[in-house]
Amino acid sequence: TQTITIGQKLKISISTFNLFKNRNKRFEEQVQQQRFSTRFFLIVTLISLVILVFYISFENITHTVIKNNPTITEFDKLYQEYPNTIQCPCQTYSINYEEFITFQPHLHSICSSTFVDETSQWLIIDYPQAMLSGNNGGPTYSARKDDFRQIGSPFFQLLNSFCNLSSKTINAELTTFYLSRFITLNLITFEQFQTQMNQLINQFIKNTARSFINSLFFVENMTAANMLVSAFQSDSLFSSASPIYDEFRYPDYQYIYDRIDQIYNSNESGIDCDCQSTPWCIQQAIIYDLVTRTQLFSPPGIFVGCYLVEAVLQSDLRCFFDIGCLQQLIDSLSLVNISASDIILNSTASHYQEKSSLLEIVSNLMVEEWNNQTFYDNYFNICQPSVCTATYISQGNIVYIITTTIGLIGGLTKVYRFIVPMFIKIIVHKQLIEQMNVLNQKLQNTISQTLDESHILIEQLWNDISTNNENNINYLLKEHEKNLNEKRMNNIKKLKYIKF
């Protein structure tokens, strides 16, 4: 017996492999068609598999990361990995600022000093009692407009008022601010929290200071616009005249008063300033000797002017930071039981310059430091996200590629097993029709050719009969019959080997 090699067995197995066997279709033509369908099915499946593997390998896949009840550390880690897609919805999305912001404002050192203490001598600076007389309590001699004793007590009282008003304004604004709410639908990071809180706090401080100074300027402008007269007559003087001046117009008055605007001269500009033109006219304040009326001391940075408020706002506190200047001020005012070393202001404790005007200080609500603090932990605990989700895009790993490919190719094979046999059947049927058409055409050509040859033979027979050539006639008839038999056999063979 002849031995069959493994290669031959493999070749036979491949050539006879059939995925579409049907016990009801066992004819050779039907089995051959099933094998064609099997080969076509395998080719299409292999091509689909290659395409799917390449596509899935380079496809961008969206992955979702979920973390339930994250801590601050876990949230920070997730944010570092997925900063653009992380979402952590807050359970409480509306939070009062007081829950995570605090202020402990520290005012200028002048506000906590003895200079504005309501029991100190600085708030009752005045002329000696012996020099006060009359109903208005003014000095017995004509005081000069730049005399510091006239404004000494009001000067420090006004400083006290600025401190108290600033403190009350800050407390009122903070109460409103604390009750305002921070709306946050999603948890924000520590850096985002700090940035937003810093912007919020800075805006709050600016708005509060602007509102305060605008209110102050509103009062100042109303005073100047209505030409109200200062109690110190620092903006204008009144003069009186006899009623003879116009007895017909003022018959019931003993005196007629006329207003004379004060003129100030700033040592810095050297230009006269009329209070009628602007209420901001100032002049260096001077302490005079009450007996000789000579100049004792000019406290640097302290001015007198049309109105007390404008004069104080343009003054500064440099003298209160200088022990020599302060002691000379104490001595000139004859204040008792006061030592400059005990009450001097500490310049290192202030971020303002010694020559910073009170307008600058008051414009900042007399505040040295706001001492604000923000607490991200409090915000996080109140927000308390129950879940954090993040998404990222990457190419699939080998496990994803294999599982996805198997899933897709499984579905495709089911479709192919249904479609491929139908497709092959259509193709075979089409080829069969084409073969039949070709065969019919050949048969027609053969018949036509045979008829033509028959006509020729008949003519030859006729010619031979005419020539009485009997032998030739017999020979031609035999040849003609032989040719017809051969052609008939060939046509039968062709019909026999048509493949269905």
From TrEMBL:
<feature type="transmembrane region" description="Helical">
    <location>
        <begin position="398"/>
        <end position="416"/>
    </location>
</feature>
<protein>
    <submittedName>
        <fullName>Uncharacterized protein</fullName>
    </submittedName>
</protein>
<keyword id="KW-1133">Transmembrane helix</keyword>
<keyword id="KW-0472">Membrane</keyword>
<keyword id="KW-0812">Transmembrane</keyword>
<feature type="transmembrane region" description="Helical">
    <location>
        <begin position="40"/>
        <end position="58"/>
    </location>
</feature>
